[in-house]
Amino acid sequence: MRTPARAASLLPLLLLLTAPASLLTAPSSLAAGTVARTDDGVLTQQVTLSWDGDRRRRVMQRSAVVPGIGTLTLVCRPDSTLVRLRPTDRTAETQLWMAKYESKDDRPVVSVKTARVYRFATATDTGRGGTGPVTHEGLNQQATIEDWQSGYLHGVISQRPARNRAGASMAVPPTTSLELTWWWTGFRHPRDWQSCRMDATLRTDLSQRPQLTWHGDADAAGNDTRTIDLPGLGTMTLACAADPTTTPSLALAPGTEDSSLYVETISGEGLVDDHVDSDDLVRDPVTGLLGPVPLPENGMLRVFATVGGVERAFTVSSYWVRNDAEHPEQDLCEVAVAEVGAQA
Asked: Signal peptide: which range, if any (predicted)?
């Protein structure tokens, strides 16, 4: 499914999230797996999970590699619908951030979710209270999975040093963007009437490490800005100082004056109208920048940069704490950026 670029997050849910009972038709077998390609150091993976009818003869999960991090698996069964992440290193801080769009009570809603695997949660953590080796996000809304459901999400998968270590204490793997749509029907009907389809696109620029991480105010010194070269687009700068009087931000220095930026800021959980804010920006003729755009304290950005008539999209996860005067070692900033791959 190809999602329109600018309207990706605010795509009208009427078409995606409604389906009449007449769609419960007899099975017409379809199954597919993972197609991966590498162009100019960018790995793009298209993952399709699709089945109809008697589930004993159907593949009900598909996996893809997350370079340098682990494995992402899509699961769609009448008793389990989820996306699962299994990193190879549990001692690191591994995060799957998602802006998940669905319909509830016939209204479009969004929720920002962070599925994490970690052993050390804070600077003083003993390592005894971490998570297990796997994390997941469920896609169903009810314990007994609803008969019909659909939705989509934008995600960022990233990994960094554990929170008891300095932000630059390990070489981090590249970030991976995730675009996922799902649809199932007939899960409360006989097997022959059941079907499910999930389509995911994962994109990883193997040459980039577009993250900013520091753990503790002392670690922020020298680590509070990061400039990312984006060939054909310009340079992106992430800024997140320990000084609470400053505003963490993202800015783009475009390669040409013919440029603009459209940004969606997504936070919390609830109605799309209440939890997604958008801004249209043009290049500042004094600074030469698009932005800066404030980074949410606990949320995500969808950034659409148009430079020289070419639009490229990015998903950003952002989490920072900068107000612990009594325990400044507990302050932190964790930002990850991943360019979005085109969906099939």
From this structure: 1-31
User: Would you state the structure tokens that stand for residue 84, as one six-digit string?
Assistant: 């699962």
Pull the structure tokens for residue 247: 């505003």
Q: For the beta carbon of residue 4, count every other beta carbon within 10 angstroms.
A: 8
Query: Which amino acid is it at 225?
Result: T
Q: What angle do CA 116, 91, 243 make, to 5 degrees?
A: 70
Is residue 13 assigned to a domain?
Answer: no
The two tokens of residue 275 are 């939890």
150/299 same-domain check: no
| Coil/strand/helix, residue 15 | helix
Q: Residues 303-322, buried b or exposed e (16+ Cβ, 10 A)? A: bbbbbeeeeebbbbbbbbeb
Residue 18 lies in a domain: no
261-312 confidence digits (pLDDT tens): 999 999 999 999 999 999 999 999 999 999 999 999 999 999 999 999 999 9
* Alpha carbon 297 to chain centroid, angstroms: 16
Same domain flag for 182 and 226:
no
* Rounded-to-integer distance, Cα 181 and Cα 153, Å: 7
Closest CA to 300 of 177, 196, 209: 177
User: Which one of 205, 237, 258 terminates a domain?
Assistant: 205
What is the residue-wise DSSP string for 230-272?
ETTTEEEEEE--S-TTS--EEEEEESSSSEEEEEEEEESEEEH
DSSP reduced 3-state for 256: coil
Q: What is the three-class DSSP state of 321?
A: strand
d(CA 79, CA 228): 43
pLDDT per position as a tens digit, 91-118: 999 999 999 999 999 999 999 999 999 9
CA-CA distances (angstroms) from residue 269 to 10, 39, 69, 284? 15, 36, 28, 33
Phi-psi bin for 216: left (phi > 0), alpha (psi -120 to 50), beta? left
Alpha carbon distance 66, 60 (integer Å): 20
Give residue 205's region: left, alpha or beta (phi > 0; psi -120 to 50). Answer: beta
56: nearest Cα among 74, 73, 77: 77
Print burial letters for 175-201: b (CB count within 10 Å at least 16), e (below 16): bbbbbbbbbbbbbeeebebbbbbbbbb
Residue in the block written with tokens 């962070």: 114
Location of structure tokens 């300095």: 166
